[in-house]
């Protein structure tokens, strides 16, 4: 049998009902439920640091002229931004899903 809260979430999935039963704070992006501060901003900084290190390595190891250096820098920045965007989309999709899960009668 469904509880009253489950019944409201399944059959009346409006924003007020969902918001009243799910507590999401303003800094939920930065805080994982265990209380650690390993979240969106820290991982974004990790991506920035990795991108800067890769750019410096390419500049030092593959110094073949101004146009080649610009190409290498452009490729590294593009790859870093694309990887970060993929990670951010997956992270935010798991943090606040768009589809409310539908429970079966046995759950």
From TrEMBL:
Membrane spanning segments where? Answer: 40-58, 70-93
Enumerate the InterPro entries for this protein: ATPase_V0-cplx_e1/e2_su (IPR008389)
Name the Gene Ontology molecular function terms of this record. proton-transporting ATPase activity, rotational mechanism
Q: Which UniProt keywords apply?
A: Hydrogen ion transport, Ion transport, Membrane, Transmembrane, Transmembrane helix, Transport
**Record's protein name:** V-type proton ATPase subunit e1
Q: Give the residues annotated as coiled coil.
A: none
Protein family membership: Belongs to the V-ATPase e1/e2 subunit family.
Q: Which domain of life is it from?
A: Eukaryota
Q: Which Pfam families match?
A: ATP_synt_H (PF05493)
- Write out the GO cellular component annotations: proton-transporting V-type ATPase, V0 domain
Q: Where in the cell is it found?
A: Membrane
Topology term for the membrane: Multi-pass membrane protein
Species name for this entry?
A: Solanum commersonii (Commerson's wild potato)
